[in-house]
């Protein structure tokens, strides 16, 4: 039991350290839309603060975050992108990530970003994931705010 607890603490510490390394690329590429603290005008740009980690409850949600075109095509290395994603999920996301969520790795990010979501309607795709997160993982209903009134709703 102690070994498992120690392993979880080490994983959390590694995620936090990797996440802080991702702050710089976040500030360079994402802050303009998502805000420094991950809070914005929710109807126009999704909030990240205390919400983004919920996507890691589902394999397709985890992949979705990296496969978003603005993320997948970011002009940074796979390692830097992994660090940025970890910063977003584990720092800005607060306690929204599952307790057993593993940090993104450069290899995982490299694979996912080769499959950008350019062939699907992003708003609909995101909405389907969000509805599952709300229903099955008690994600906040505020995650529905994105796009409200912008896409004929």
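^ structure tokens above, recovered residues below v
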């Amino acid at each position: 039991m102690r070994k498992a607890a120690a392993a979880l603490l080490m994983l959390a510490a590694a995620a936090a350290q990797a996440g802080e390394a991702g702050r710089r690329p976040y500030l360079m590429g994402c802050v303009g839309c998502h805000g420094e603290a991950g809070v914005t005008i929710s109807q126009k740009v999704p909030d990240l603060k205390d919400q983004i980690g919920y996507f890691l409850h589902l394999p397709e949600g985890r992949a979705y975050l990296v496969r978003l075109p603005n993320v997948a095509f970011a002009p940074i290395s796979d390692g830097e992108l992994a660090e940025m994603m970890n910063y977003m999920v584990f720092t800005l996301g607060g306690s929204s990530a599952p307790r057993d969520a593993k940090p993104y790795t450069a290899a995982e990010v490299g694979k996912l970003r080769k499959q950008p979501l350019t062939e699907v309607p992003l708003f609909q795709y995101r909405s389907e994931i969000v509805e599952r997160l709300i229903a099955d993982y008690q994600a906040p209903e505020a995650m529905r705010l994105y796009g409200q009134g912008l896409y004929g709703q």
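The longest helix spans residues 2-21.
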